[in-house]
Design a protein that fits this description.
Layout: H1 10-27, H2 40-49, H3 56-68, E1 73-77, H4 81-93, E2 100-104, H5 112-119, E3 127-131, H6 136-145, E4 151-153, H7 162-168, H8 175-183, E5 199-201, H9 209-218, E6 224-226, H10 230-239, E7 250-254, H11 261-264, E8 273-277, H12 285-291, E9 297-303, E10 321-333, H13 334-340, E11 346-355, E12 370-374, H14 385-394, E13 400-403, H15 411-419, E14 428-432, H16 439-448, E15 454-460, H17 462-477, E16 483-488
Parallel strand pairs: 1-2, 2-3, 3-4, 4-5, 5-6, 7-8, 8-9, 9-10, 10-11, 11-12, 12-13, 13-14, 14-15, 15-16
Length: 491
């Protein structure tokens, strides 16, 4: 059975009480510049775990105190311009100590020269997130510091353009360099601030295909580039007959035709993750997997598959994570999925109709850790209870399970699942439409799943929701360490 809820740790209680005191002081008028003496570890813990629900002035006061205490990592989300300026003034006083900065600001925040002056002194910076108010001038200032930058996120900063990318590689907009890059010749750049960049997020910026080409070709360890034009940049390099390999491991294609993977793979031999979102054409996952034999993660979102067969018929042993989200529901044979992807650890199927021609088929072994089977909106497709029993036994090693279509699942079916030692390791279990399960079965489930910490019974009729309220009360009275979530139709 799940254990009793442990008492709150003394350290956590002390942190909560201290934050309440700061809230009280803020209501009394103590602002961001009020002195705050606290150990750096306490300030970091407060920023990491306790800022939810706090006033902005308290968050800014904690951030300023953390910087003044010499912390090297700062993550803060602020909207008010005055509070942002206070944090930047604190950073400007000790810029050389900052190694990781995550500063998310309001959409209309203008930080201008103050942020530029601060970035010029951050010589030890390895990770930077500035969104959505960064500009090219800020990247120019960052490049002047020549930090060992490894990750950069300036997503939705519309004033970031190719000019900022040129600054990151240490050169001006030189047509000769661009021509050499397109031919596969790496130019001799004396100072390349971006030479250690491994991950860059440029989604929603003004960077063009040209800037993506420069980053891919001149950042030797760049593995992840998130940009709308990354695919076009790869196709451009292919057309220019580039032969030198890139370090790209992840590719995102959003609302654009799928690239010719057979041409891209030779220059991206390390490609292991592919995400395709809302493509305009029909897709065949089997063809994609054949063209990318080293792929370990495949996500096809809001797509329409080609006519059958669109799943591979031979085992794909390299794939460990699969996410399929269909625009129009299509039958998916679960036995085909289990045999075609024997190494899966994470599986998400959305907008599908699971089928199992013979529910008495022996359940194959699996390495699944997470399983989600989400029913299409307003779907009337009810899954046979025998199929649900088969699925839950197939997912017996999972720690996270989310199953739709459970309208026909009864107490007897759940007892059969538990008798086969399924769900023994589950921590988070979500069942949609399981209105036929009684409170007694829920208690049996809690007895059989010692690691269970969250149970969500979703899409239930109003009368069943009311009946479950008594169970929630009993769980609280017994101090059972499990969160019971219920919601559904309230009309």
């Amino acid at each position: 059975m799940v254990g009793r809820r442990l008492p709150e740790r003394l350290e956590s209680r002390a942190l909560t009480s201290w934050l309440r005191v700061l809230e009280t002081q803020a209501r009394r008028g103590e602002g961001v510049r009020a002195p705050l003496l606290a150990p750096p570890a306490l300030l970091l813990a407060a920023l990491d775990r306790g800022t939810a629900g706090l006033r902005e002035v308290v968050v800014a006061r904690l951030a300023v105190a953390a910087v003044e205490a010499g912390v090297s990592k700062l993550e803060v989300n602020l909207e008010h311009p005055t509070l942002i300026e206070a944090v930047l003034h604190a950073l400007a006083g000790r810029p050389h100590l900052t190694q990781s900065l995550n500063l998310k600001m309001g959409p209309r925040t203008a930080v201008g020269d103050l942020l530029s002056d601060t970035l010029k002194g951050m010589v030890a910076l390895t990770s930077l997130t500035l969104t959505p108010a960064a500009t090219d001038d800020h990247l120019v200032a960052l490049a002047a510091a020549k930090p060992p930058l490894q990750t950069l996120d300036v997503s939705y900063c519309t004033e970031i353009t190719d000019k900022g990318i040129w600054a990151l590689i240490g050169e001006g907009d030189d047509a000769t360099i661009m021509r050499d890059v397109m031919k596969g010749v790496t130019p001799n750049i004396q100072t390349n601030p971006g030479k250690k960049l491994a991950g860059v997020n440029l989604w929603g910026t003004g960077v063009t295909t040209r800037g993506c080409v420069l980053l891919m070709a001149l950042c030797p360890v760049l593995a992840v580039l998130t940009c709308r034009w990354a695919t076009e940049a790869l196709e451009l390099l292919v057309r220019c007959k580039r032969s030198a390999a890139l370090s790209i491991t992840q590719l995102l294609v959003a609302e654009a035709p799928s690239p010719n993977l057979q041409q891209i793979v030779p220059i991206c031999p390390h490609l292991t993750s592919l995400v395709v979102r809302h493509p305009p054409e029909f897709l065949n996952p089997a063809d994609i997997l054949v063209a990318t034999p080293n792929l370990s993660t495949l996500s096809l979102l809001q797509f329409t598959p080609t006519p059958d067969p669109w799943l591979p018929t031979t085992p794909i042993n390299a794939l460990t994570s699969l996410h399929l989200s269909l625009l129009c529901p299509r039958d998916v044979n679960l036995m085909t999925v289990s045999t075609s992807f024997p190494s899966l650890q994470h599986l998400t199927l959305e907008g599908i109709h699971p089928v199992l021609p013979n529910p008495q088929t022996p359940v194959p072994s699996s390495s699944l850790e997470t399983l989600r089977m989400v029913a299409p909106p307003l779907s009337r497709h009810n899954l046979n209870a025998n199929v649900i029993v088969w699925v839950l036994e197939w997912a017996k090693s999972c720690v996270t399970v989310d199953i739709g279509y459970c309208n026909l699942l009864t107490d007897k079916d759940l007892a059969e699942v538990l008798s086969r030692s399924a769900l023994a390791q589950v921590i988070d279990l979500r069942l949609s439409g399981a209105s036929k399960l009684s409170n007694e079965s829920v208690w049996t489930l809690l007895d059989s799943c010692p690691d269970l910490r969250r149970l969500a019974l979703k899409m239930l009729p109003m009368e069943r929701l009311a009946a479950l309220e008594s169970l929630k009360v009993q769980l609280r009275m017994d101090n059972i360490d499990v969160e019971l979530i219920t919601y559904g139709w309230k009309f």
